[in-house]
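#help-structures
NK: newbie question, is this the right format to request a structure? protein is tRNA threonylcarbamoyladenosine dehydratase 2
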Amino acid sequence: MPHFISDTLASPRFQLFATAVLSGVTVASLLLGYQALEREQRLSELRNSIPSLADDSHRTRRAKSAADKEDARNQALARRAQAGDFDEELILEQLARNRVFLTPDGLQKLRDSFVIVVGCGGVGSHCVASLARSGVSKIRLVDFDQVTLSSLNRHAVATLADVGIPKVQCLQRRLMAIAPWVKFDLRQEKFDETVAATMLGPWEGGREPDYVVDAIDNIDTKVELLRYCYDHKLPVISAMGAGCKSDPTRIVVGDIGASKDDGLSRATRRRLKLQGITSGIPVVYSTEQAGEGKAELLPLPEEEFQKGSVGDLGAMANFRVRILPVLGTMPAVFGMTAANHVMLRITGYPINYVPAKGRDKMYEGILTYVQGSEEKLARLFEPGTIGLKTPLTLGDVAFLAEELYHARSIISGIPTRLVLIRWRKPETSSMKVMGEGKDMQKSSTVSLRDLVCMTKEEATRHEKEIFKAGKALDEVYDAETIARVEAKLAEAAAHEQYR
């Protein structure tokens, strides 16, 4: 073997291959570096051109100086207002419409509140702007990103002059000029579970947040935030996907268990159900369905590259990109709907959303059926078995029944009297025993990848033919049904990592 390796290393072909690989890596690094510099130069040129369209350098400097003075004035006013040196009557006059609507007591609750908004893009920025304009006095902003050119079609307050600055700083910069008494706590960091306790922790003086707004568009961190809020009983509302949506009349507030019609909502709901959270989190979502002629996620057409500046939309200039289509009005509606919910909850204003149909009783019935079925199966190997525990939760049942099988039988498509049952008969005992005597624990070995959704009548037949009579699956079901079931079982196996 050593001789083979030395011959390979000495081979002219290997040396030529290694040289080519190293050259390719070097060229790629130079290319990426050049493109990054090129992009930064273009953005810098754009920012420098914003103060004035005139070529007169004196006027350009004067415009820039005026902008700096305006920022300084706003900052000075904000410092005075937050220190209490601001006429209370002027604040009440600015908030007069809210005061009449919410009552003086309701407005005071809003002014005393502390709200955290995680994600300050299209949805989050409109939510923050609405909260600040309406009287919330303490707002923590959490976002690691910066304002980009493509942000400007949907961001609430960003201008061309803000391109390249952190989104949290942009919001504070613009909103302090509107409501200088609002105190902002800026956290320019990426949210994840490792920093959740800090990001969602108390304000100065130990004040816990009155509400948390989730405006994250990343599934992993979204689930981590919602799980943390759920576990720590922090009031939270989550904004689902505004991408590819166009109908504002379809945007509703409902429970996480009822949101079904967008990819972000579906993926978030699945992950949460696998972690045992089937309800109890309000979400803003759209019931709009995809359809012919409507926007969808597609590769960028070649003709778009001919229009120029397409690279500004991607992570790196001059690279082919895929863009999530977003109509600028829709994130605003999502964000304002979330802010509206927060304000009503904090002030105690009556909320009468149309309730979604509860499914917990159905899940409990299915879980009971699984436990009974597993006991019967265990008795085929161990007669007299009773008291068998099942390693499934209501979240597991909800995921399988609703998300994987869409509340329909995999055999017939019928949506009534549904149960879950093993697809294959175990070759050996399906029972695991731990301990002895009074400390003995008997449990089933069933997992998500074992169970299929059927009607109760179909499950009875399946139990009789497959489990008791010992027939092969292809003796009872046709090839198309078996293939359909196997695909679902493989999908369940892939999702078990999120339990």
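mod (FA): yep, format's fine, and the tokens are attached above. The two ends are 45 Å apart (CA to CA).
NK: thank you!
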